[in-house]
Amino acid sequence: MTPTPKTDSLRPMTQVQIDQERAFVKSLEEECETYWDMVSIGDVLSRDLEVTPELVILYADAVEDYNPWYEGWRMNEWRITGASPFGGAIVPPLMISHFVLSVQFDHTKPFAIGSIHTYHDTEILAPIPIGATIRITTTATDKFIKRDRRYVRHEVSVSDVRDDTLYMREVRDILSL
């Protein structure tokens, strides 16, 4: 019989979660670079994401944004077309911005220490339909120093993988210690 994992009462965790947390904490002991050192101007990272109704429901519930425009899923009917002024159900406008960091930081490299998201400007160009597969692309466009602090600027684009519809653009700055 496997012993029950030990955890505190505030964070009940599965064995997988405990193992992941321990691996992350151990990785912090490794030699780490700052984000400034890890990124070069011109670096481009990109990932595709299928925006499923389930993903939208999880996000909308988490931020308590209960808008019928986002409903592309219903109990016992599963995936539905939904309705909004743009046709079918759409993605909450800033949901995709949440996923940019998972692209911006190269997951194949060790965790960058001391990074703080300090600037964010989003331009929404078109609603993203639920069910779309989007491509999130980040490009490191500048490194600069302001008030003796080092910043890395990224330009982000979010487009449809099928027809290249451009849904969103962002500019983000990350302060690197």
Structural commentary:
- The chain has 177 residues and is an alpha+beta fold.
- The protein has a domain at 35-51 and 91-176: Hotdog Thioesterase (Thiol Ester Dehydrase, Chain A), CATH 3.10.129.10.
- 21% of the residues lie in helices and 33% in strands.
- The chain is built from four helices and seven strands.
- It has helices spanning 15-27, 35-38, 53-63, 95-104; strands at 44-50, 73-74, 78-79, 115-124, 133-146, 149-160, 166-176.
- A five-stranded antiparallel beta sheet has the order 1-5-6-7-4, with helices on one face.
- Strand 6 and strand 7 form a beta hairpin.
- The chain is globular and about 50 Å long.
Would you kindly provide a brief summary of this structure?
The protein is built from 4 helices and 7 strands; from the N terminus they run ααβαββαββββ. With 177 residues, the protein is of the alpha+beta class. It has a domain of 103 residues: Roll (Thiol Ester Dehydrase, Chain A), CATH 3.10.129.10.
Distance between the termini: 46 Å
Rounded mean pLDDT is 87
How many β strands by DSSP?
Answer: 7
Can you tell me the CATH superfamily of the domain at 35-51 and 91-176? Hotdog Thioesterase
Which key terms come to mind for this protein?
globular; HotDog_dom_sf; Thiol Ester Dehydrase, Chain A; 177 residues; 7 strands; two-stranded antiparallel sheet; 33% strand; alpha+beta; 4 helices; MaoC family dehydratase
